[in-house]
Specification:
By secondary structure, the protein is α/β, with parallel strands linked by helices. 38% of the residues lie in helices and 10% in strands. The longest helix is centred in the middle third of the chain and has 19 residues. The chain is globular. The protein starts with a helix and ends in a 28-residue tail after the last helix.
């Protein structure tokens, strides 16, 4: 009997050893539903607030709460420990409020029991709003306070990215689509001419036209000439906008066009590396951004090989998640050789009925990568140091005029062993990286270049064919 029991335990041992423990997350999310770009300034709608809150709630239920199926090792399940969570985005109303809504889903109010404090004089003070947890949102330090203004473009200034994106408008593909779809777009003038005039209603402004009608379809009780807004019409507008925006965000033969994805890749590895080198003290990193950043990253990471849908514009509240995990005992913190990373994608709001799905990165077959293979794959296109960015963009003025800029890559690759306890991951000498906030400013600033919509601001004036940048028909690029 004892021999049979020992045999059973021996058979089960590999299974127990293979159990996964989540050590950290990097979540990159699009904002929730908002008002139309053509009717600036935009704002997060109640629907959008609900979307990001629901998404945050799913991440809480899956990774944070007591009993969560993939609970992060050592995470505080109820009361937020600010050292364990970093949330960042640009200083913009849509992105900031989206980040706040998501944070509320991650750590909702805890009630009076967990949110009261006994003072020395014996008074018990309860936190307001039933124990609402205040979670700070880190913001960029550059730019202005609204996506309606210069921060979308002013913090990027990547000369070669501008040239690369503009070159799409001279390509045979663009010219062919612009000509072949002109009649289709002009047929929609009765619906949109009060906001977007006929001279701007073309494939050149594919996303702004689609966005305007998509928002109307969601929110407007009545739509002028609504008989023209059929399902087929919306599908065609969506498909054209997808093609238009992907081609502005990524080009396989001209990688600088995807500068937003390259800088985002560096931030992802930098954040996960901070989790590794700190032995898991900051396990959750969340960043909110815009669809162009997704698309340029999708192209660079060759996710289009995994599924053709990755060329499309992500829906509101979409998330891509990077799980850092181990299959060995999580304490002491595992060495780099025992760490793995998994990429998960969800188009739209995550929920129990629709959960994120793993996809293979870099054109591979496996959805799980070793930490070293992951950093090597990301470093193949990541741009995280000031000198790398200046060289890629061809800029020689401003910050690029200084020769004293650090040359260390953002992620450090797998080439620099850590001096921290246990020798985990990449060196903490990621000080050569553009500071986290500056890097974020670059990423989100570059988004303005990549979007190139509405009035196509980075396009030369002769391309605008009479568009008036101050008119409602030439809305400013916004998230």
């Amino acid at each position: 009997m004892q021999s049979q029991l020992l045999l059973l335990l021996t058979l089960l041992l590999p299974l127990s050893q293979a159990a996964e423990t989540i050590l950290g997350l990097y979540i990159f999310s699009r904002h929730g539903d908002r008002t139309a770009k053509a009717l600036a300034p935009t704002s997060l709608t109640d629907l959008g607030y609900s979307e990001v809150f629901q998404s945050g709630t799913w991440f809480r239920d899956n990774y944070i709460a007591d009993g969560a199926p993939s609970q992060i090792d050592g995470i505080s399940p109820n009361t937020v420990k600010l050292k364990q969570l970093s949330i960042s985005t640009a200083l913009d109303n849509v992105l900031q409020t989206s980040a706040q809504g998501f944070a509320q889903g991650l750590y909702p109010p805890v009630g009076s029991t967990l949110s009261s404090q006994l003072l020395r004089n014996g008074t018990i003070v309860a936190a307001p709003l039933n124990g609402y947890q205040i979670i700070p949102i880190q913001t960029v330090t550059g730019g202005t306070s609204s996506e309606d203004q210069a921060w979308l473009q002013g913090d990027s200034n990547c000369d070669k990215a501008v040239v690369s994106s503009n070159s799409y408008f001279d390509s045979p593909e663009y010219i062919s689509l612009d000509n072949s779809t002109m009649a289709f777009y002009q047929s929609l003038n009765p619906i949109i001419n009060s906001t977007i005039n006929a001279s701007q209603n073309s494939y050149q402004n594919a996303y702004v036209v689609y966005d305007f009608l998509n928002v109307a379809e969601i929110h407007n009780a009545t739509i002028p000439s609504s008989d023209l807004v059929t399902n087929d019409t919306m599908m065609q507008l969506s498909s054209l906008a997808n093609i238009h925006e992907f081609n502005l965000a990524y080009n396989a033969s001209d990688s600088v066009r995807a500068i937003a994805g390259a800088t985002l890749a560096a931030q992802i590895v930098q954040a996960l590396n901070a989790t590794v080198t700190s032995n898991g003290s900051t396990p959750i990193n969340v960043q909110f951004g815009e669809y162009g950043q997704f698309q340029s990253f999708f192209g660079l990471a060759n996710l289009t090989a995994a599924a053709p849908d990755f060329i499309g514009i992500p829906d509101y509240a979409s998330t891509m998640t990077f799980e850092l995990f181990t299959t060995v005992a999580p304490s002491p913190f595992p060495s780099a050789d025992d760490l793995s990373v998994r990429f998960l994608w969800h188009n739209g709001t995550a929920s129990n009925d629709s959960t994120p799905t793993p996809f293979p990165l870099f054109g591979q077959q496996n959805t799980t990568l070793s930490w070293n293979d992951f950093t090597k794959g990301m470093n193949a296109f990541a741009i995280g140091s000031q000198s790398q960015w200046c060289a890629a963009c061809g800029n020689t003025t401003g910050v690029c005029a200084s020769t004293g800029a650090s040359t260390s890559p953002a992620s450090g690759g797998a080439s620099s062993p850590s001096s921290s306890k246990g020798g985990n991951g990449i060196s903490t000498a990621v000080g050569g990286v553009i500071g986290a906030m500056v890097t974020l400013a670059v990423i989100l600033g570059v988004e303005g270049i990549i979007m190139l919509i509405a009035g196509l601001r980075v396009v030369s004036k002769k391309r605008l064919s009479g568009a008036d940048s101050s008119s409602a028909g030439s809305p400013n690029p916004k998230a």
